[in-house]
Design brief:
Number of strands: 6
Strand order of the largest sheet: 3-2-4-5-1-6
Bound molecules: adenosine-5'-triphosphate, magnesium ion
Subcellular location: Cytoplasm
CATH class of the largest domain: Alpha Beta
Strand content: 5-15%
Pfam families: CobA_CobO_BtuR (PF02572)
Number of helices: 9
CATH architecture of the largest domain: 3-Layer(aba) Sandwich
GO molecular function, one term: corrinoid adenosyltransferase activity
Structural class: alpha/beta
Keywords: ATP-binding, Cobalamin biosynthesis, Cytoplasm, Nucleotide-binding, Porphyrin biosynthesis, Transferase
GO cellular component, one term: cytoplasm
Amino acid sequence: MIDKTDLLNLSPEAKREHYHKVRMARKKTQIDAAIARADTEKGLLLVITGNGKGKSTSAFGMVGRALGHGKKIGVCQFIKSRTDTGEEAFFGQQENCEWHVLGDGFTWDTQDRSSDIATSERGWQVATKMLTDPSYDLVILDELTYLLSYDYLDKDAVLNTLSERPEMQHVVVTGRSAIAELRELADTVSDVKDEKHAYKSGIKAQKGIDF
Ligand code: ATP
Ligand code: MG
């Protein structure tokens, strides 16, 4: 340990070095304590919401991670109906990844609330099978938030199925405007902020970036 007189004789660089060391040592103690405290293992519910780009791609990033660890994954894509995405082409052909596109298109395309509800219910049945089967380590419910915010599905039933799922199963829910009850139930919530998006400058959706 350097005493006060030694410190006064140090060059500005050496002083800086010293203070950095002290700060980092303090930080390490705090981080090590936090790591030691976080010793629970359980299946997580993650909600990735907000207006910015990066919600679904974040979920698919976790699919890649989980596949790398040999986990079994189920993906349910609600609302959207396109089956030409890069993520489906890539992950859908992986042996450990089951991929379902369960949407009919956006509400402003279908313009039919009762058919949207019927489609949502059919999709939710597929999701429920995964959420009651412990062999799925990770379940992605892409764009599920809309089915709750538009009241297409019974909110309590969905929240109940999510909370009663197998103990070690991870679930990621994506989509804008996640309802408060879902955020509350979640272990991790990320709100992706829209600062800028190329689309607003008239640039169309780009292959490999947007789909
Ligand atoms: P991504 O799938 O790229 O991670 P996302 O899941 O965050 O996007 P969605 O609301 O599902 O966002 O929209 C998907 C499509 O809309 C993508 O093509 C994405 O680039 C585009 N998009 C996302 N956010 C915005 C935005 N703020 N303005 C315009 N387009 C957006
Ligand atoms: Mg999305």
